[in-house]
Write a structure and sequence with these properties.
Elements lengths: L1 H20 L8 H14 L2 H27 L18 H23 L2 H7 L12 H26 L28 H18 L3 H18 L18 H11 L10 H6 L3 H21 L1
Helix pairs in contact: 3-5, 3-8, 6-7, 6-8
Amino acid sequence: MAVNESVDILNSAYLAVEYIDSFLPDNPLQQPFKNAWNYMLDNYTKFQIATWGSLIVHELSYFLLCLPGFIFQFIPYMRKYKIQQDKPETWEKQWKCLKTLLFNHFCIQLPLICGTYYFTEYFSIPYDWERMPRWYVLLAQCFGCAVIEDAWHYFLHRLLHHKRIYKYIHKVHHEFITPFGMQAEYAHPLETLILGAGFFIGIIVFCNHMILLWAWVICRLIETIDVHSGYDIPLSPLHLVPFYAGARFHDFHHMNFIGNYASTFTWWDRIFGTDYQYISYQKKEKNQELLTEKKSK
């Protein structure tokens, strides 16, 4: 009975969004995007699209999303938004990070990307424009992927912090106490495989078109680069996402090494109490700010 009620609620929500969407003005970018998509289908094979297209989407998205954080270190005005202001980035650390990153991208992730075509063929996932899901369906699917990945990340990430295995795998990622955007995928190859597996679970559950795989790649990179950026920008639209953890939440994990294990949302840490040190830290910071304000008056 409860299942039927949930299905009815979801159907009603879908119809409501579809009704609202019918009143929205036409997207001026839709036709150029459609032309580009059909051009891609006409000129490249499915294997080329799935393999090299996915690689290009990942690499372009990753380094373009890292660019703002990289530039911020040269802008004095942005320093007030840096979370750990006493620990600036160094060229040495950034160069070390880039070398490991390129190894992981092309020696670990690229072989996995090469299986994308076979995955889409096995599950009969379409590429054509006509069956591409609407924007609100795509958004809901990406949110579903994020919820699934967040659960996987919380429990496996917490396991990687176990004292018997931490120094062999996850310690690599924690070489940087002060995270920066490019460091998001800086990790031991085994960690790339273990935590990266959570990315694919949502794809298996929700994927009904090739576009979802690319949309989810971009959404996941936006999230992981933001939480590793080292900057808490007040006007960031990500703050509007309910239960979103954000940069301060994950930055504390790099400072403290324990707690705040989830990748995107705060609920798993709240349920299991692994955010208690972070909550105490926040209270101390607020009390310190109040004392500073009183002294200044």
